[in-house]
Amino acid sequence: MEKKFKRTTVTSALPYANGPVHIGHLAGVYVPSDIYVRYLRLKKEDVLFIGGSDEHGVPITIRAKKEGITPQDVVDRYHTLIKDSFKEFGISFDVYSRTTSETHRRTASDFFRKLYEKGEFVEKTSMQYYDEEAQTFLADRYITGECPHCHAEGAYGDQCEKCGTSLSPTDLINPKSAISGSAPVMRETKHWYLPLDKHEEWLSKWILEDHKEWRNNVYGQCKSWLDMGLQPRAVSRDLDWGIPVPVEGAEGKVLYVWFDAPIGYISNTRELLPDTWEKWWKDPETRLVHFIGKDNIVFHCIVFPAMLKAEGSFILPDNVPSNEFLNLEGDKISTSRNWAVWLHEYLRDFPGKQDVLRYVLTANAPETKDNDFTWKDFQARNNNELVAVYGNFVNRALQLTQKYYDGVVPVCGELTDYDRETLNEFKDVKQKVEELLDVFKFRDAQKEAMNLARIGNKYIADCEPWKVVKTDPERVKTIIYISLQLTANLAIAFEPFLPFSSEKLRRMLNMESFEWTQLGSTDLLKAGHQLAKPELLFEKIEDEVIEAQVQKLLDTKKANEEASYKANPIRENIAFEDFQKLDIRVGTVLECTKVPKADKLLCFKIADGLENRTIVSGIAKYYNPEDLVGKQVCFIANLAPRKLKGIESQGMILSAVNFDETLSVVTVDREVKPGSEVG
Questions:
Q1: From 412's CA, which of 65, 386, 570, 622 has a CA 20 to 30 Å away?
Q2: Where are the alpha helices (DSSP H) in 364-416?
Q3: What is the pLDDT averaged over residues 459-479?
């Protein structure tokens, strides 16, 4: 039997205050969470919507260093931009705070301290690179060097941006400090770890047995991690930007951002409700729901619950509705390449059209798989659905009321069979929309709301009141009355999805508000009620407006191509004898699997003409393993073996790096014998 809760705490992933918000963030997290919260509020349920900026971590310190400003300057700039953009877009947070607040510092420190005093952490000593000149330990991103795989210069200590391979700082050839430029040395450092392996048993039961209703992508990713076995995870790191670790002997160490950030949900609630925040986080009659993107599933379903359980007094999430990713014009959204539609720019370029973007992002919501946003589809959905279906019906109903009855709702006359059939079609809309919203199927729920407008358009077109008025004026009163009831229902049904348009429609109907319980009613507007002057609910978006947006993206793509070429100029000539030292051959992929706990690595078993060999390659972002089996690939056969994630890699698979950082494996255009030389 489903448990009934008194209230619901809804959180949305904290955007990283290192840049603005784009449509991928909106589609993945903020539009669906706002729809859900608005729906609960309409039902008069007790709900709290928590948001805020994530403001710690290495990328912020790197941006600050590049710009010659402080990390606080960086987060102040982007926190304000993000907060203002959300507000203008209608994301209806009850609180939107930040992880640099004093409340958060105190809350996160107390949380760590309690776990520390309970003995929930494991202390470990390890060797880490240290910059003697700058007198600081170096985070992975502050170490650069030559990639051991593609030999590109400037690879980071966690990843080579050129070939995409995941790295450890010790993998780099000739490592250097990004702070001073000097060669770092290895020094011993101590950190605290959350032993996730200790929580594995209860997590497995809680997720795999108790929460089979979670979305397939969430359940599947959690199961994959649990099947591989959980490992301790560091909760501290050597850095000077963040919340200091609140124990003796931890000077120069801060809470790791993954540990600190989710506590931001709690601290932001505490900031809003200092006296009653605990009931939203500790009362078993409170339901906790996290809205996140798929890159945050493990943190919200495994790591954060382990933290809460270890603390001992908090409730655990009841559901974590995570979306997949939204692409842009067939290409992955990339902040570093400026390949995105930024929210603050959209609000500037399309004033008053918040609901158009909300509608399109919900219609294209990546709920079960990655989806694509294109400007042509954006235009088509606006013109062919919002304008031609929803807006057209509303305009017809209101204009005809104005024309025939001076904007006064007429008295409903005798109903025909077709009238009853139409009324019957929308009486169940409340149940249908609720059933879908309750299980986070926002795309289908919005379709049901739009179906009301389709019913209305068909009804008014079939009845043709502009013709009937000449022969049977009493009949027209009934047609208009029913059309107005449908119009009022649309104002309610679309309230969670398109709040600005629903408010505008309510004004035209001269109704301050409707109750959600009235959805499906056939007498929302009483006879004799005076409507306000009708206006167009939506307006057509012309081709030139869309062409300007497409051109902006084309200009971005061209600039990226030019920058990529300049960043990767043709290298100096080498002697032919040097080229001959490389033994490049063709091999057939016999097996290909993902490397456990390495999101970017694939492990290949390759037939090379003599015996099978193993090669590890960082291309998991660009290929499904099963798609590579049977392909013939080019590889360097005489590279010295290297261990990656405990696997000895015996060579390097060749890939072409596109300007957008995507990779394409180098193959042959017809089958050759494995082991064939390339020269």
A1: 386
A2: 375-381, 392-405
A3: 95
pLDDT tens for each residue of 349-397: 999 999 999 999 999 999 989 999 999 999 999 999 999 999 999 999 9
Q: How far is CA 565 from the centre of its chain?
A: 31
* Separation of alpha carbons 316 and 408, rounded Å: 53
Homologous superfamily of domain range 576-665:
Nucleic acid-binding proteins (2.40.50.140)
Task: Give Cα 298 to chain centroid, integer Å.
Answer: 14
Instruction: Decide: 401 and 575 in contact? Cβ < 8 Å.
Output: no
Helix residue spans in 543-622 (DSSP H) = 543-567, 576-580
Q: How confident is the model at residue 564 (pLDDT cuts 50, 70, 90)?
A: low
CATH 3.90.79.10 at 7-120+254-327, yes or no: no
Both tokens of residue 312? 């001992």
For residue 118, CA distances in Å to 111, 142, 232, 246 come to 11, 34, 17, 14
Residues of the chain with CATH 2.40.50.140: 576-665
Alpha-carbon separation of residue 586 from 604, 634, 654, 657 (angstroms): 13, 5, 10, 19
Mention every residue, 6+ apart, whose C-beta is less than 8 A from residue 218. 297, 301, 320, 321, 322
Which pLDDT score is estimated for 659? Answer: 53
> Structure tokens of 369?
């798989």
**CATH architecture classification, 384-518:** Orthogonal Bundle (1.10)
Report residue 514 as tokens. Answer: 């409707």
Nearest Cα to 555, choosing from 374, 339, 341, 350?
Answer: 339
Q: What are the residues whose beta carbons fall under 8 Å from the beta carbon of 345, sequence distance 6 or more?
A: none
**In terms of Cα–Cα distance, which of 504, 446, 499, 513 is closest to 91?**
499
Angle, CA 162 vertex, CA 160 and CA 164 arms, to 5° = 55
> What type of residue is 184?
P
Residue 666's alpha-carbon distances to 74, 176, 374, 606, 678, in angstroms, are 41, 31, 30, 14, 11
